[in-house]
Design brief:
The protein is of the alpha+beta class and 171 residues long. The protein contains three helices and twelve strands. It has helices at 13-24, 66-73, 93-104; strands at residues 2-8, 32-34, 37-41, 47-51, 56-61, 78-81, 108-109, 112-116, 122-126, 136-140, 145-152, 155-165. The strands form three sheets. A five-stranded mixed beta sheet has the order 9-8-12-11-10, with no helix packed on it. The longest helix has 12 residues, at 13-24. The radius of gyration is 18 Å and the shape is elongated.
């Protein structure tokens, strides 16, 4: 399978996903469109979902073809493949590894489990933030959120993810 990132109209990711996935089936029965969301909490602990990468969806298919690009261009919410429609490249390296991690937790990223060690550094024990400690650029303990910085498809993206504060296991 090859994986690609597509920029679409922010707020229309779900509509693009539904429409484009149907049209992709003409070319590839196993094709899939993925729109990742994250679970968050308000200050009153009410849970809600929002886009993890607003304006971006990912697709998987056996092989890219000019027909797939033509079909994408028919969708009114489509902007372009990354890096551009003239240079469509499948995800590779760290981009592909991060996408695999996202897929592991499903299209809706839940809460990670974390605690703070004796040096007051956050330690992630489980969930979508596992393995991203080096990418955490800000921690908001009051709101239980971390800001993560990632380079995906040659674009730097910052986003917040929620965590549950747990007590560390005693050794």
């Amino acid at each position: 399978m090859e994986y690609y990132c597509i920029m679409v109209k922010a707020g229309a990711e779900e509509a693009f996903k539904t429409d484009f996935e149907k049209s992709l089936r003409k070319f590839d029965d196993s094709a899939q469109v993925m729109f990742f969301k994250k679970k968050m909490r308000t200050s009153k602990k009410v849970e809600y979902e929002q886009a993890l990468f607003p304006g971006y969806v990912f697709i998987s298919l056996q092989k890219m073809s000019p027909s797939v690009l033509s079909e994408a261009k028919l969708n009114r919410n489509f902007y372009h493949f990354l890096p551009s429609n003239k240079e469509i490249h499948p995800l590779k390296g760290e981009d592909l590894e991060y996408l695999a991690k996202l897929k592991k937790f499903g299209e809706v990223q839940g809460f990670s489990k974390a605690y703070f060690n004796e040096d007051m550094r956050i330690v992630i024990t489980d969930g979508p933030l596992t393995g991203l400690s080096g990418n955490i650029i800000k921690v908001n303990r009051k709101r239980q959120r971390v800001t993560v910085k990632l380079d995906i498809c040659s674009n730097t993206m910052k986003f917040d993810l929620a965590y549950d504060d747990i007590s560390p296991e005693k050794k």
